[in-house]
Fold each of these.
Amino acid sequence: MEVHHLSYPHHLFENENEDAYSLAIGFFDGIHRGHQAVIQDALTVGKELQIKTAVMTFDPHPSLVLGKSKEQVFYITPMEQKIEVLKGLNVDTLFVVRFTSDFAKLTPVQFIDSFIKKANVKHVTAGFDFTFGAFGKGTMKEMEQLAGGEYTVSVVDKQMLTGDKISSTRIREELKTGNMEQVKELLGRPFMLSGVVIHGDKRGRTIDFPTANVQPMEGQFIPSTGVYAVKIQVQENWYEGVCNVGYKPTFNNPEDKKLSIEVHIIDFDQSIYGEEVIVHWYSRIRSEQKFNGIDALKEQIGKDKLVAVNYFQINE
């Protein structure tokens, strides 16, 4: 998959692209099943027209530029992950448009001229609620009206699961409660967190449950505190594990609010400091809790490990 970074007014298409595209357009945080329906429509049309399929997304999140969020935005799929997921969907080209204050001022007509027509887009697919141009005034109806015969348009209706719309907002709410089974249903795959194994306090080794202390990719959404059944990819191999997200209250001062993500990898005994790993989240086992001593903690971790092993035996 080719990846092109675009910005306005610089680094745009100087001349019309030689390649024609069927384009799926949206922010696509999570690339959940609703987003996949949009991308699949673009792929289908691309195949029918015998042209390439592209996805256009934006970076950073518009709320950061438009002043709607004063806090850091945490992504379900940071850009590196988004690229990997799109590769798996057989997309030919990804256009990453830099969302800036200048870009946000574009009228719908200017956006279409600069980012649709000059890109040699022959078909545009988006979700029913996609808007574009200054103040989000451009709708998909307007996208079609401004085509001038140069491209066609299709709009994908909202996708539903258990009576509610599949959305990035809904996924974030489920992540906040640790409902990883529901997150998996909404995404169409397990929630994924990428990071690097760093040195921790190494206390796990002293209680016979060594852990990999994972420092997550910056800007990545982290699920609710608790203990989870997970799988972790280390050097291209996948292992089952138990992950604790929290503040380690058994050992730490309650005022210490440094969050840690620690994975006990089952049947694994290697030094992996500095390794990039991927954690797939499957099921929340329990809440994080404070124990009265090391023995009680060890006993509970042993139980958590059995729960994780049984989970994967039943669900594999």
Amino acid sequence: MSASERSEGWVTDQLSRLTDEYGSAPVHQASWSVSGPRYEEAAAVDTAEHAAAGVRVTNDADETLLVRDRHNEWAPPRGAVAADESLEAGAKRNVREATGIDCEVEGVERITIVSIGDESDRDRPPIYCLVVLFVGSCGSDQTVQCTESPVRWRHSRPGDSLDPGVLAI
């Protein structure tokens, strides 16, 4: 089975599992063209490593947890999911590592399927990745512990401008 078929099958299985667990959620599609060497890297990694996830966390005061990302924008905490963890576990770990907050996942806000193509050989089949933004919450006893980037609670919920391109895959 090719890397394209494996990644497509894994994404399909994850979409089915997420729908069974949380119900339907908006699914978006994006395409990236990358260099031949970067395409080869994507094709060589374990299929489960083709995922990124985060959580839009709210607290008892209806504030949203945000971190300043590598693009200098305020966004929900997110990052890559390891091959040995579920999308939910990876999302919760990303929140904890970025903010010190332990959260619960309650649903799915948005799913993006990313198709990675080889810009130098358009005939190569795409490698598929999955980017998931969960919704979740934490108790009032949770306090932010700044780690490497600024963290804050925001009263007004930011617009849904999550771009899959800013997530680490």
Amino acid sequence: MEARHLRYALALAEHAHFGRAARSLGIAQPPLSKQIADLERETGARLFDRTRRGVFPTAAGEAFLVRARRALEEMAAARADAGRAARGETGRLRLGFVASALLDPLPDVLGRFGRERPGVRLELHEMASGRGAAALIAGELDVAVTLGPPRGAGAEHLVSVPVGHDHLTAVVAGTHPYAGQASVSVDQLRRQPLIVAAGEDEPAVAACLRVLLGEDAAALEGATMARDVHTIMGLAACGAGVGLGPSRMREAPRAGIRFSEVTPRTALPDLVLSFADRDRSPALGAFLDTVRRTCPHVGAALDVRAGRA
């Protein structure tokens, strides 16, 4: 039994006449009559009464037509669902990210992706770079945003593209002596209590700070350790000291704080987006397309690394 048999039976029931049903289907009447007869032999029941007034479903035919109509509807839905999945309009995307990525660029990327692909289920996981990279390599994530590219066994099978360049920025309370300064120097930082990140990504940032302040910098030994950039800004607003974090902190201004550049300018690890080079998931493809359109400066690099250039 094929889908065409179901369509033929439904057309015959609608038109109550072999000739009219055949014309609606775009076939000749003899093939239609033969297909209906074959269908009745296969079901083992007479599905239609042939009378002078027309062709009408029997009780068995009525029961058959109910199921036939549902089956064709399900087949149409299956085709539609398959098409949506193939276009990346449905499915699942598992994204791991460091907290600072929520300042930029994830708000714009996720907002746009959610509006354009509401049928894709987003599973979002905030995690440190090391754990995010390990989860991506293990297949537990589809894409990860980390500080610096993933490293270690399996990282060679990932495509990694910088999505944000950053440098060290200072943040203080509006009442702090440094408030209003366009920049603060290393000597000024050494004379103030500091607030720095203490999460699992801290070693990479701490290494940059040690280069800036010196290996034996007492200022770092006595620094207040904050969980993330939001806590750094909150503690700075409370007057706990000079907060040091990525320049993307400026994307989340809050009352009572001021930002200053740190001189000399100190680069921080890039924000890097990574995914498995063999992953052909339509949902991932749709997400990467959103990244291209939302972050034009990333698109060319992403295409080169993914082999599309």
Amino acid sequence: MCSPKVMEQVYGEAGHSCADHAADSQDTPRTTPQPSSATPLISGSRVSDLTHTFGNDFPVLEPIVLKPNIDHFADVAGEGFNANKLEIDEHTGTHVDGPAHLEDGPMYTDEIPIDRFIAPLCVIRIGDRAAKDHDTTLTADDILRWESRHGRIPPGALVVMDSGWCDRISTPGAYINRDAAGVPHFPGLGFDAAELLVSQRAIVAAGTDTPSLDASKNLQVDDPGAHRIVLGDMRYGVENIANLATVPELGATAVVGLIKHRKGFAGPCRVFGIY
């Protein structure tokens, strides 16, 4: 943002560059960071983006979630720079549900320990079943079958359901999947699966590739039980995860880059799978 027009708006004068103002600064000179000799926290040669791109047309679970409004309010021709104004619900696109989402008292999203956002990624696939039954849920038996192939879920893991729902995102109406009566239908975590992960496995978070941790049928009866079980005690949820078919069931590391705003109940995030 160093054009003469921008400089005039910011400093009240035109024609100076950012370098000119930096030279006038009396700040202490910066030192160049030295490379660390520590062992890398993450190893892997492939990176998958597990995040949906969202815009004003991103399907949200109305009226529970407000539609995003992205306004290109400044452009180069008019102001000398480009900028968007974002009006977004915390539950927009690929996002985190924080511990305080459903009750007052637990920590806000900006208070979650940062090391909990880097976690072993465990992907449990139920796509074949979800293709036939849009109201299906991830069950405790699904988790135990996964463990019979891969071993026990590692401590500190992010465990996610892959129902194949990501493939619906570009088809109008298919992602929320409302029937003729306007009732949505999509998979989520079963209560028994959530309870197993929380009480018998030391997970940091659980996630889904659908609009909610809970299957839509639970939301219709106002019983978001999967949310209530998972969230709390520094645990969080991740919803609307994308591209899970591009990562292995075990062996990837998840990195969750959550927006950090004060007293957050939830927030959009960028999720990577590294393996």
